[in-house]
Amino acid sequence: MNFIERFLDTLVETPKPLVTEVDGKTLLPLAGIELARLVARARAGLRQRAAGPGERVVLLAPNSTRWVAADLAILAEGCVCVPLYARQAAAELVAMMRDADPKLVVAADEELGSAITKLWPEAPLITFRELFVDALVDAPAAPRDPDEPVTIIYTSGTSGEAKGVVLSVANVDYMLPVLKDAVEAMMGATEPDHRVFHYLPLCFAGSRMVLWMCLYRRNGIMLSTNLDELKTELAAARPNYVLNVPALLERIKEGVEKALRDRPRAIQVLWERGKAAWQKKVRGEAGWFDKASLAVAQRVVFSKIRTQIGAELRCLIAGSAPLGEDTQRWFEMIGLPIYQVYGLTETTAIVTMDKPDAIVAGWVGQAITGCETRLGDEDELLVRGPNVFKGYWRRDEATAEAFADGGWFKTGDQVEQDKDGGFRIVGRVRNLLVPSSGHNVAPEPIEQKIIGTIVGVEQCVVIGHGRPYLTAILTGDVDREVVDRGIEKINEELPHYRRIRKFHLTNERFTPENGLLTANTKLKRKAIEQHFGKVLGAMYQ
User: Fold this and answer.
1) How far apart are the C-alpha atoms of 59 and 104, rounded to whole Å?
2) Has this prediction a pTM greater than 0.70?
3) Of the residues 72, 159, 479, 482, which has the maximum number of CB atoms within 10 A of its CB?
4) What is the fold, at CATH topology level, of the domain defined by 3-240?
5) Where are the domains of the chain?
6) What CATH code would you report for 432-539?
């Protein structure tokens, strides 16, 4: 039985809610048997349009129960689901759609659909209203071989055109039990009743694995419907764990610290003493006064902060981008451990994961069961195993370039490895800057240090390839004088060739909408350099 067949059985056998939409303070649950009916209606809609095994079906919609039902229906009919990010620029979406050569494009509504047909009038587009017909298909899932494609997920395309990553039935069949075991170890329990809240787009590989893992465990998942109401939705959902991107965790940390500055002086003193005591404890230097200060802070301040973030949260999971060590330690200090996950779309989302009692701030854990790793040139992490994809959609040359001899996938990430097999991501091999001094500089550690050290800086990109020195573009609500002092302090700890000589502070955030971030919030470095070309020209005069 493959994972698709298991999902269909799970739906009809589960009377409890499996997917719940969270709309502000309102929970809109859908039981497994109700979800099964939605899937059956969507399967009928696909058959009416002759979408059959092996054909690509694009899914363009925000998170919802209907997104989940459409995804499962596409899989059950033997089609290949191509999920795309609904908030991405229409021109980029159309380019990916044309590349996928789909039988159908399924959009959530007419508004999303019209943005596509303006640029691609002949698109084979239908909406959810046309997909979920009144008829039902009550039939087993279409048979599939393990190596058959099940989904094509387009990569971020940080330095060029996006490529479709083809994942097979075997990739997912391997990953789900591994992920299930990891989550149950993390939660310290096997019962399938953990409350899982999810706000990240389901079209991303990591998000899809969380959704599918919940279905695999018969564990309900709660879906955010409005990111502007995230705080309210979190309170309503009362989750036990949440998958996060570091940017949100850093904003939570900054928001709490900003609010503390308005609290009575006594609370501020307890906070500062508790924080200092925690740092000494981490270094193994805590004396009796530090232990007493920490105990008081935990009872009076830290516990209340944790309750405000999530009264029933047991832990947080972070992935997609580097998480600052300071941020990870901050959450641990208030009693919320963060488990880091590292992986790529090409590795079915996961290569390494933190394990209970083995979390090291700034590191991303050990390789998951069955996944082989080794270091290549420039300490690039190479990966081999049943989680690794077979290739990019219709891009034989790009596929060949992605692998080293022996079937090792080249992640492009430069890493360190400790004696226990744990990994720390140093930077991207292809992002290495080589200033005119000839030194190799990984920009990510410097960027993380700036964001983690200077309160108010939200985003940072370091620039300097082929140039005489390094500069930085920063975004955030912060005074220039504060940034000046912060960078001066950071520079004192760095060798001369890694120091930031000049910076530009802007209120213009990097976003997917303005083309300066990818759809899954990674920096588009070349686009940022081009966008701020005049500013950079002035900084290098």
Assistant:
1) 9
2) yes
3) 72
4) Rossmann fold (3.40.50)
5) 3-240, 432-539
6) 3.30.300.30
